[in-house]
Amino acid sequence: MTRLAWWLIRAQFMTRRTATALSMLAIALGVALGYAIHLINTAALADFSQAMKSVQGEPDAVLAAKDSAGRVPLALINEIARDPAVAIVAPVIETRVRVDHAAIHSGAPVKLIGLDIFSAAAVMPKLLPRQDSGGAGMFEDGVHASPALLARLQLKVGAGVTLTRGAARWRTRIVGDLPAARPDDLLLVADIAWVQARFGPPDAVSEGRLRLMPGTRLASWLETWTARLPAGLTLRAAADDTQRVSNISRAYRVNLNVLALVALLTGAFLVFATQLTAVAQRSTQFALLGVLGLSPRMRLLQVLFEGLAIGVPGAALGLALGYGLALAFTRVMGGDLGGGFFSGSTPVIAARLLPSLSFFALGCAASLAGALYPAWLNRVQPLAQALKTGFAQRPPAVHGLYARPRRSVLIASALLPLAALGLTRLPALDGLPLAGYGAIALVLVLGIAVAPLLTQIVFGAVARRALSAPQRVAVQNIVQAPLMAQVAASGLIVSFALTVSMVTMVSSFRLAVDQWLDAVLPAPLYVRSKGMPLPQELLAALERGAAPFARIERSAHGALSLDPQRPAVVLLVREMRRADAAARLPFTGPVVAVATDRVPVWISEPMQELYRLAPGQTLRLPLLGREVDTVIGGVWRDYSRQFGAVVIASDDYIALGGQFEVSDLALWPRRGEEAAAKAWLAAHAAGYGLDIAESSEIRALSLSIFDKSFAVTYALEAAAMLIGLFGLAVTLAASVWLRARELATLSALGFDRAMLTRAVMFEGALIAGIGLGLGLACGIAIGAILTHVVNPQAFHWRMELTVPWLQVLLGAALTLAAGIAASRFAARLATRLPAAQVLASAQ
Amino acid sequence: MLTVTDLSKRHPNAVRAVFDELAFAVAAGEIVALVGESGVGKSTLLNCIAGLEPADRGAILIGREARDIVRLDEAARAALRAASIGFVFQAFHVLPTLTVAQNIAVPLLLSGLAPGEHQARIEALLARVGLAGFAQRWPPSLSGGELQRVAIARALVHRPALILADEPTGNLDPRTADEVLALLLERVREEHASALIVTHSQHVAQRCDRILTLTPDGLQ
């Protein structure tokens, strides 16, 4: 039996090389994308986690301020250290400084970490200086630099450097290195008292990193202490940090995985089309084998074996391709696949057995799923009839389905949209738009289910009209051969729907980002420091009348931790008056007037979605070491900070006791002095490692990052359309092949080759037309779901739906032309043999 | 080797039965011709005997063990065909993607004969049907007569108890038809199998041991 199965598989591969190879490639593509995403993400998370551990060490818990401007009082650290359940507390001060050595500048700010050597030895051993580097003590009067930083600055131990942070500036010396730091860590480490004395804060630290005594239950210990913490502080399990890092990119990963799944499903569809046509073309052979004694089970299994024979090499190729893609992607895009989450890292890709086997099995399963219906159809073919007349498109077992198509399709047409609509109303499940994806699947099922009814209605009407002979043959064939027509149309429905939906979503998103950039980049010039205050000299120079600027707007950045499980919300302190808010931010709705004795804040759309907030509500924010009640004055559009942002006016922030450390500038040069303004900035900002950009440059860069992040999507759209077209070509060719004798008979009755070709091309055009029409309708519906459900739930971004009609209609026209060309090819294949020979042939 | 008793068959929604209470037997080594006008139900009868169409009533006992194919499920009917029935068709039905030897080996694979015995048996049979040296040839390169010889070899290779032939010479020219028929009858007798041959040809029928005529009123 195995031998017979192998003979048949080999024969199938030899006679249908192109279709088989393309099916394998499609499966390989789906597996490769999914596997590459998995490999990259696993490596990126591991890399990020290691990097975090290298700096943070491996504590059990971390005590920190919820506000990046907040501090942890040393008194509290000491109190916690006295708890018998606590083994050790390592106080840490973290800040960012600019490092200068003569004419050499560090460029981007460098992290400066202040440690207590004894506690750090237990909790953060990788940050310890070289044992023999010191003189009298472990930390001398100076800083220890990581090897990567020494290499970046081209300095050696012993070199003198200047450290600058805002107005604070200190000359010091690099007294040693950090041998255990990761090769890409740019770090300075010094004694905590040394850092505190120079950069503050007095009597406080940035964090306390804790180790508990063995046997202490972390959760209950955290609960007890959290209840006793002063406002503005948070105590979190260190393991949550890894989870939070994973959560940052989860929605993006899931979205990419859904795209990979779509690629795999299109692969499964191709296997389906290939196997269905293979079964149809070999129906007489299978019937003969059945007559000779091949059991129904074996007829079913044979087609499944053939599906597996496509899936196994396809999945194996997919693993190899996926590994290669992962290597290439990490080199080109880093570990974040263009998502911007872990920028800068180039993680090491490592294949592991279990995930590899899982993706291999997934590819095989997709291929088997594609072969399932053809296998079942082969199982139920009536042997005697198939032996005599060939493939039965309506085997007895499915007569019931076709007997009352209108009723079942009408019920499906009514229920499926309702179900899809219901799913779009459901909230995200665990932060993921699973119901939205379900609604998309239902729309596709609806499109495929409606196809036969639409075919009946359209071609029923067409058939009643006066038609030329070729047209009549084409119409009658579609009506008489619904399975092949439906399969051909289904491929186009699915592929065109996915293409239209992605084009619509991406186009809507791009247009929205474009408009948003107009609103958020009103100034011609922008200056930004990277995570530290701008130099005092620059700010002072800007105040002087000689600076060629008509208007300057200052702002500062901070971070607020509202939920330990989620990434921090960005705090934007902006130089703006309350009354100007409506003109200064791109609000999505009305701006609420806030009483003068209350503090207004304006939250971004993602923050509204994530924390379920609304304008007018009181929002308690952890600001400046305490909880401050603010009022939400409005919600503004933000496509930049996915995890939320909140704006507060600088006057209000200062009134609350905050220090307005300016890190960003928006600059309006005086009229006619644009070039002079740029030159002035270049001269004054030189050596500070600042980003200076025109708004047009930021806009171009933003849109280029946008396009880069959707590059995978464009590639998948193209693949989906090619697969849909190939499915159409394969099924049309098979349909025509099955009717070779009928066409030969028509030829004998007086149809010339041109008429037969016209008939087949007309049939292809009609099927493609139905597929494209339904695909377009489904595509716009799916585009709306992606835009209004999936995007807000996954990424917390909202936008208007914009259908790019020109692109869509051009795509439809091209697809129709390709479909007609495929039909012409099928017709030429069918009519190349002399009619007499076909009529005389046995099959 | 083949015993048919009280066999009745009516197509769904048909006014009258295709046949009603048919009864006949074909003894071991006997070759019986089944003749009758078109549409009288000869092919349906053959399909019922092969278990390809269900009979409404009656019994069809096949082989030395006299198993009733009417009472068997689909898988068991397939197994009985694989073990006990050989088929020869008007349209040859030789698989174009398998070699001549592979085509002939199919019943051996289906009946579970050890692969070691295949080659010798196939080569011997090919020699007896006049196709020595054709083992590795592909069917599209063969003539109609040669294809039918391959089909006869395939029908006999697993030494079935019953051969069912449906117009075995219908697609052949008279001289080839004569040769093929002679070969079929000779090989069937040699194997001591039973055979039921459906034919419109009086010439073919005359060369069989017995003739059964199927009419709308039953067998004569």
Compile the SSE list and pairings.
The complex is a heterodimer of chains A (843) and B (220).
Chain A: H1 2-15, H2 17-56, E1 61-65, E2 72-73, H3 74-81, E3 86-101, E4 104-105, E5 110-115, H4 117-123, E6 143-145, H5 147-153, E7 160-165, E8 168-177, E9 187-191, H6 192-199, E10 204-205, E11 207-212, H7 218-228, E12 233-237, H8 238-281, H9 283-292, H10 296-333, H11 353-380, H12 383-389, H13 399-403, H14 405-424, H15 434-463, H16 469-480, H17 482-520, E13 525-528, H18 536-543, E14 549-560, E15 569-574, H19 581-584, E16 599-604, H20 605-611, E17 618-623, E18 626-636, E19 645-649, H21 650-655, E20 664-669, H22 674-685, E21 691-694, H23 695-709, H24 711-738, H25 740-748, H26 753-795, H27 805-831, H28 835-840
Parallel strand pairs in A: 5-9, 6-8, 15-19, 16-18
Antiparallel strand pairs in A: 1-11, 1-12, 2-10, 3-4, 3-5, 3-7, 3-11, 6-9, 7-8, 13-20, 13-21, 14-15, 14-20, 16-19, 17-18
Helix pairs in contact in A: 1-10, 2-8, 2-10, 2-11, 8-10, 8-11, 8-17, 8-24, 9-12, 10-11, 14-15, 15-16, 15-17, 15-26, 16-26, 17-24, 17-26, 24-27, 26-27
Chain B: E1 2-9, E2 19-26, E3 31-35, H1 42-50, E4 57-62, E5 67-68, H2 74-84, E6 85-89, H3 100-111, H4 118-128, H5 144-156, E7 162-166, H6 174-191, E8 194-198, H7 202-206, E9 210-215, E10 218-219
Parallel strand pairs in B: 3-8, 3-9, 6-7, 7-8
Antiparallel strand pairs in B: 1-2, 1-4, 4-5, 9-10
Helix pairs in contact in B: 3-4, 3-5, 5-6
